[in-house]
Amino acid sequence: MKQYDKLIQDLAPKKFGLRGTIWVIFLVVIIMFSLYAYYQQFDKGLGITGMRDYALWGVYISNFVFFVAISLVGSLVTAVLRLSGANWATPLTRISEVIAVAAIMMGGLTIIIDMGRPDRILNIFLHGRLQSPIIWDVLVITTYLFISVLLLYYPLLPDFAILKKHFKETQPKLGKYYSKMSLNWTGNAKQEKIYNKSIHTLSVMIIPVAFAIHTVTAWLFATTYRAGWDSTNFGPYFIAGAFVAGSGAVVMLMFILRKTYHLEEYITDMHFDKMGKLLVLLCLVYLYFNINEFLIPAYKSTNEEAAHLHGLFFGEFSLMFWLAIIGGLVVPVIVLIFRKGRKPVPLFIIAILVVVGAWWKRYIIVTPTLLHPLLPIQGVPESWHSYFPTGLEWTITAGTLAASLLIMTILFRYLPIIPIHETAEEKGFLKTEKTETL
Amino acid sequence: MIKSVIFRSKSVLLIFMGVLALFGNEAYGQKDKIGARLTLEHVKVMNENSSLKIKAIFKGEEGYEPAKNLNFTIYKINESEVDSEEISEEDSEAVLEEKIGDVTTNMEGKATFVIPSQFVTSLATYSIRIENSDTYQDDEEEITVMDAILEASVEEIDSVYHIKAQLVSIDNEPLAEQTLRVGLKRLFGSLSIGEDDSYETDENGAILVPVQDGLTGVDGKLNFQVTLKESDDYGSIIAYIKSDIGVPIKNESTFYQRTLWSPPSKTPIFLLIVPNIILIGIWGVLVLLVINLFKIYKSKN
Amino acid sequence: MEEDKKKSRRKFFELGIKFGLLATVGTVAVAKAMDNEDSSGMVELMSTDGNIIQVPASEVHDVAHKQPEDYDPRVGIPDKKFVMVVDLAKCTNALKCQESCNKNHYITGKNAWLKVYKMQESEKTAPYWMPTLCQHCDKPPCVKVCPVDATFKRQDGIVLIDNERCIGCRFCMAACPYSTRVFNWNEPDQPAAAHEGEYTPDYAGKPSVKGTVDKCDFCPHMIQMGELPHCVSACPNDVYSFGDMYEDAVTNGSGQTFKLSKLLEERAGHRLLEGLGTEPSVFYLPPVDRNVDFEEGLENYTEFQSVKKTEE
After folding, report:
1. Candidates B27, B116, B253; nearest CB to C44
2. Domain at B148-248, CATH class
3. CATH code: domain of residue A329
4. What whole-number distance in Å separates Cα of residue C207 and Cα of residue A87?
5. Residue of chain B whose alpha carbon sits nearest to that of A143
6. pLDDT digits (tens, 9 = 90+) for A85-107
7. What is the SS3 assignment for C259-283?
8. What is the least distance, in Å, from the CA of A308 to any CA of chain C?
9. Buried-most residue among A169, B2, B70, B85 (CB within 10 A)?
10. pLDDT at C41 (0 to 100)
11. What is the ipTM for the molecules in this complex?
12. What is the reported pLDDT for C66?
């Protein structure tokens, strides 16, 4: 009883302290700036960015791919690990789902930011063509968002029921919200049956949808003829990369939330150790795909590929490329092979490298290819031969990242970061609780 | 006496200069107007009409440009004793020439004036004039043509199609050694028929040109034309021949097929069926899962 | 008597001046009056049934082919397939084609729709000038990927853009292997003439729309008037020919018409990036037996400019 109560006490959402408030204000300020910057773009046109006719996609699109990639972690941790019986991951499922929901929401928004005529967005629904990979992307993203929200919500039902009781005295208004959201959850047999079946179904369904979402996003590039994009490898390559990025994000949040909300008892060194091992495995898989992606075109060295690869390996993109590969993949593997490397602090630092590397890796995927078209670049100003995002472009991008963090922050504020009910189940606290009626 | 003469003259002179200043610009203004270069062609289409084809260009800053919206007055100058070129407007009841219409050039600087049939004679002189244009200098171009008849037809000789044409004067005299062009009307021009670009009429004023194989047309329809181009005496004469001896075209457009590049109304069947089945399957389950939430809500016992 | 003589001389003198003044004024006045004679703006034409009719002069222009009532810019002209032939042996980088296209489509950005590339596949092969424009492919990758049916292929083979539908995602630009599409990153700075009349995809650039894609349209607005596209007419070297593939005939700017199949066979015509399977509608004749050296075109070559700035 005492253990159960302590569990609830530990895991129940707490108010923001000073740090939390400052953090939220910081994010809101960034978002305000980005809204101003977007207003400039809406008014004047995409010309306020550094994109031009050759570098026709830039930071907005690589940011979009990054968001879609990160969102796959929801399916990885929540679904794959759950279904394969890896119960150690249970404390991490909510973090993963929140990341998934926040990332996929911002992914959808980011793609609208990149549109030249966002005022005509309804045309997608009025005149949509099923032949277009963009329409496939719209369909899967919408589907994945819906599944992720459901997969976030379902396990919250018992937790909301617990929290409604917990806040009844101290914050009655908040308690009422939890009560409504809990949909009269009592944990009776009938509800449990529906609950278990539904979560199982969602977990199974989300995996192919997650694969679909990032494969379709990869096809936005692979359905073109350009060197660097014209690859049969792109679907699996993107998915492997998505798991790396997502896992890195989970580790980052594990560390931060553990510290901020004092969850050391629930997110233990064991969890970091396991995530570290998982990250090594995923990085190795992604490195394998990278080798396929770069070594074989280099072997053949067609004219188009050669120019593109030269830019990546030795040329104008080489610093970014090697930092992303070595810093974002090789170094993590080397460090995390060792047990010491998988301790919380070093793992956290490595996770930062992984996530930042993942963001720049997407930039490397989008921009260099566009600057090596099949016909020579002529007849346009010299600045059009390269791409440098403008200040406004960076501001808007920062705004999307800040918005995703804000969504996560707010969700982590009001949702138990660690699933209370599931943790209680696993720790066996519920056996004594069964006689209690709520 | 001289004083009063000068005084009188002064006032008259002042009035004169004043009027000249106001209206004189007209006379001096000719120098500021643009000089257009004119080409004039008389075209007779057999069994249809005769027309004057005018092209006007001027030398602009970047080379020759079309003279747009330039109005021409068309005159027919009748055959008479006086060779009239300098008739002033004052003697306008002249029987030597009559105005038969006017025409304005289009955006390309071209204009076609169909000569009303009553003015078509066996020998005619036409004059096109720029008069009273604000932008262009007065100018004139003349053309004299004799009427002639060009008859053309398609004939099959030894199972090879030929174009047969004969050019005769209005008195049925054959016109020999005239250069005729034989062409097949295509969308933007005329494709030469036979080996040569042009053919000389023989002593009977006739030509016979074999038509090459493999000419295509909608439903095999071919419009040939035999042209006497800008001859000195007869102007241009065109005879059209409509025939259907061509190879019917094969329309290879995929516009009415279901393809990857078709509009939504022609989506390939595979894309209509498979994605929709998948989506309906998934969303069907998702709807059921939402219904499950309601079920949970309802079964609080 | 002498005084009388003087008086009459003076009188004659004055009379002469008066008469001269009157004559001048009179002539000018009559001339001005005569100016109004033809200001009714009507033109006499013969109708098809042989009657003389009066038609407003502004209505009279060369309309060789009037479109039927049910003409739809998205459907196009039936039983035709438009193709272009570019003779690389004749191109000297005169750039008159580009100038005419830019002018007539009110192109005021920094990327022309028709560009003449300085091509040299390898150091060991010959350099040549290659005009590049939208190829109006029969299997257009751009049309395949458009999410909103804003770019479309008509039954006459022409690929157009509906600037009122386009959402500016630029996927078509990414998909085009010929890099022939341009984007309006800002509000286009076009002359007033570009905004006249109702917008139709048939006349690209009239007007250009911010946040949408533009490209060569094969000039359907000219085809409808029986005229060749602007680039074809403007080229001083007869590099371009244009026509209907089903008629097996193309016509160049000088009005010479050729049998297309014969031309392609004799001159070994080829298409750009044929291996990609896009099936372009533009054929190129190789730069063999050139009259003018390649180097002559270098004078005109501006690597970083394809649209000349206007003075305004």
Report:
1. B116
2. mainly beta
3. 1.20.1630.10
4. 62
5. B283
6. 888 999 999 999 999 999 999 99
7. EHHHHHHHCCCECCCHHHCCCCCEE
8. 15
9. B70
10. 55
11. 0.93
12. 55
